[in-house]
Design brief:
single chain; alpha/beta; Rossmann fold; 2 domains; 5-stranded parallel β-sheet; 4-stranded parallel β-sheet
Length: 333
């Protein structure tokens, strides 16, 4: 295992192995002393060209819990703001002896270029690139689903206590909202398909990507029909990414009120969900737009748990990339 760039690159065995490792990491976090000596002496650089709270802090916490040294690099206030190229930034990190680089970038494909251009000798973890991929978010989402829903397709079986060894075969996952601009949706569709789940994307036609028919999922424009007829086990609400909408949100839907009326998860739609179903959101949430306060704070919501699970998943990714078997040095996880 060398890099973690895309969930589309993961085989089922690799994905399940990573999730099982995350479960083992999570077990260590209930101890009084949470730190492990696994990556002592290694250096992890968080290289963020876009603003982030949850992902950056989660990766920083994960690296520190594994005893790695952590350097946080923000494009704002750095030489990048003066025009420094990605290549020169990478060469600087190489000179500093970085062992792993966690990169979030506004340009799709930037982590891949960083990993394969030969500018640095370090593991690269994609923390979100443009509208392309966000693999660790999809992994923590799958981990959360396993803990609540594994073996429960159709609501017939009890979920696993820790999720170890369980898969998501037969589960129905609805991903709702701004799919067009969502790297989380793309990463989840690929990973959930690999793990055996069925996915339906629900969005207005203006927020569905061109070529979505080639994705391994279904597409619907009707949230009420999807909830009533398809009966999903999990509903993942996506943030409306107004900052990525050229021409403003008004170019994609008439008004926030109309968007909420047709595609928001409110108390009425929440009541339609199966007893075992869970509500998810990658955050940050636009309360009152894609999700109501009642839904976000309900007993079905696992949104805060997703954040906590992100630490274990990112610990697992860092561990497998930096301390695992390097026999397949040229491969991407």
């Amino acid at each position: 295992m060398r890099h973690l760039l895309s969930t589309a690159d993961l085989s089922k065995d690799e994905a399940v192995g990573l999730l099982d490792t995350a479960a083992q990491m999570a077990a260590t976090q209930s101890r009084e002393i949470k730190k492990l000596p696994t990556l002592r002496g290694r250096t992890v650089v968080n290289l963020f060209f876009e603003d982030s709270t949850r992902t950056r802090i989660s990766f920083e916490t994960a690296a520190k819990r594994l005893s790695a040294d952590v350097i946080n690099f923000s494009a704002k206030g750095s030489s990048v703001s003066k025009g420094e190229s990605l290549k020169d930034t990478a060469l600087t990190l190489h000179a500093m002896g970085a062992d792993a680089v966690v990169v979030r970038h506004w340009a799709s494909g930037a982590p891949y270029q960083l990993a394969h251009a030969g500018w640095l000798d370090a593991a690269v973890l994609n923390a979100g690139d443009g509208t392309h991929m966000h693999p660790t978010q999809a992994l923590l989402d799958a981990y959360t689903m396993r803990r609540h829903l594994a073996g429960r397709a159709g609501g017939l079986a009890a979920p696993a206590d820790d999720g170890v060894g369980a898969d998501l075969a037969g589960l129905r996952i609805a991903i709702v909202g701004d799919v067009l601009h969502s790297r989380v949706a793309r990463a989840n569709v690929a990973l959930l398909h690999t793990l055996g789940a069925e996915v339906t994307l629900v969005a207005p036609p203006t927020l569905v990507p061109v070529g979505v028919e080639a994705w391994p999922c279904r597409t619907s424009y009707d949230l009420d029909a999807t909830l009533a007829d398809w009966r999903p086990d999990a509903v993942m609400m996506l943030r409306v990414q107004r900052e990525r909408m050229s021409g403003g949100a008004g170019a994609f839907f008439p008004s926030p009120l109309e968007y909420t009326r047709y595609y928001g998860l409110d108390a009425r739609r929440l009541a339609q969900l199966a007893d075992h179903a869970i509500v998810m959101h990658p955050g940050p949430m636009n309360r009152g737009l894609e999700i109501s306060a009642e839904a976000a704070d309900s007993d079905k919501a696992v949104i805060v748990e997703q954040v906590a699970n992100g630490i274990a998943v990112r610990m697992a990714a860092l561990y497998l990339l930096m301390a695992g078997d390097r026999s397949a040095e040229g491969n991407d996880l």
